[in-house]
Fold this sequence. Notes:
Layout: H1 7-27, H2 31-56, H3 60-90
Helix pairs in contact: 1-2, 2-3
Amino acid sequence: MFQSVSLEYFLILAAVLFSIGSIGVLTRRNAIIIFMSIELMLNSVNLTLVSFASFLGDSAGMIFVFFVMAVAASEAAVGLAIVLALFRQKQTVNVDEVNIMKW
Length: 103
């Protein structure tokens, strides 16, 4: 009656999500979209960790996911603060137009 989904489907989904995130990081110029793509990549890694932890019957992967989620939340908060500071100073979130590190 109930069929469980095999590990390969979760890994394929995680690979697709990671690919979409990496393409978003490499092709987009908007800083907010770049941060969203990084979050998508972190979520695909979390899906992989949870899939392997469930497949192997070990809870260590699921515990590690909580640490990755904490890092992702802090990255989002710090990244958004940096984007807001840059927008207030330069009036743009386009990473090509932000050149405050140049002489």
